[in-house]
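Dear Dr. H.,

I hope your travels went smoothly. While you were away I took the liberty of generating a structure for the chain from your last submission, since the lab meeting agenda had it listed for discussion. I wanted you to have the full record in hand beforehand rather than looking at slides cold. The sequence, exactly as received, is reproduced here:
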Amino acid sequence: MSTDSKNSFTSVVSVNPYTNEYIQSISSFLSPTTSAEYSKEQFLVSYLNTKGYINNHIEISKNIPEEDILDAINIKIYDELGLDQAIEYQVQYIESFNNADSENRHFQVFIVDPLQIIETYQTTLDQIKYIDVITPAPLLIKSLYSKQIIEENSIHCFIYFEENDAFLSIYNEKEFVYTKSLRYSLIEMHERFCELHGERIEYDEFIEFLSSQNLRDTTSEYKEFILKLYKEIFANINDILAYTKKAFNIEKVEHIYIGSEINIKSKLYEIAEMELSTASSDFDFEYGFDKTEHFINQIHALMHITTTLQDDEKYSCNFSTFNRPPKFKHRQSGKLAILVAVSLFVAFSYPIAYWVLTYSQDLQYKILQSSYSEVHAKKSTRQATIKSRKADKEKALSLLKEEKNNYTSKKNTLIKIHDVKVNYPMKAKLIAQLTNDLNRYLVKIQQIQYNQNDEKKKFTFHLVSSKDKKITQLLEGLTKKYDNIFKFSLNSIHYDEDKKLYFSELKVNIL
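The corresponding predicted structure, in token form, is as follows:
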């Protein structure tokens, strides 16, 4: 069941038709129920064990149109399997894509006798009336891959024991490959155990022993015969695996999952690992349901997991013919009732509509009139408030402009005062320092100039000396002494023949 269709149901009920066991899920809780009954609000899902259908792998030419596939499959299965031509079998199929055949399409076909389904579900239908989905049990395993509970793309074998059936299924790269009914259901295991033991014990006693006694720890007289029984079971499984590998060109089964519908105390996967020489695990997973005190077997858990998947995430293979009652509008009586109702509605619609429109127009006019009075009063009040606020705004802007002018005037005055207090003493100090250095190098000053552009302060000293070397020594000494304080530049030194003196301009930038 896809998510979209599931949304209209309040609960999901899974059905085991062979034991009349019902498991109900509400939200994420699974619990057994003995009071399952017909309800439109619940979704019913069930399964067929491997004894309830025929499974076969067939090939169909790729040239056959899609709309003719079912007919081609029907013709081929009747011919190849020798089915009774007098019986119209129910046929469902899934396509296999993990092959390299370029000429044929491959299908796994499931075939069911309709009378067998009716016999299987007769008791169940007396209680719940309908079933939405009936799926072959091995196909439910697909949900483990779709939910990423198993993530590996290996070849996996799943073995499961039920009261009336036991099956083995192979999945390769997360796709169904093969299934086979085993010879040992729990009932058949009980019969064989009694033969080995040489004495008949009750079935309930046998199940109680399996559920409560671990063969590794028990000293019961049953232990020897149970071990012999398990060896026979796994010998049968080994033969089936050998056939499967050969038939489907499988090199190696990489992992086995083994479980049962009862909680067997002994760890079957440890025995399977030893007998089959293949890595094995318990067929029990973390399905995401809330834990309860009840033991929920894996087939029921898989049915509930499958109902949460979209159609493209599971195998759509449904053998149910027990459909829920159609909706009222799709029944003949429902269609007649709808037709009568529509006729009456059309007959009385005009006078009723005219009266309703007249009444609604009068009522709407009164409501709008009352609303207009309230809105008009609010409008007048707000217009007066806006006019008053505008006058206050003009006064505030006038005061703000006046304050800005006062601020600008005072700011300019302070800047001038600061310039006089700071800059002029600074100039005098700098001139004094540089004059002392000039005297030390026997260089005289003819003229001093000062200018300031873009916050850059610059002095220009017009130097006079009897030797040009004194000027160069002065420049060298000042540069070393005032590094990172002043930047000195001297473009040229020229000699005056008449005065017998050297003249130059020393430019000093304050950093």
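Two observations you may find useful: Confidence is low (pLDDT under 50) at residues 1-7. The two ends are 84 Å apart (CA to CA).

With kind regards,
E. W.
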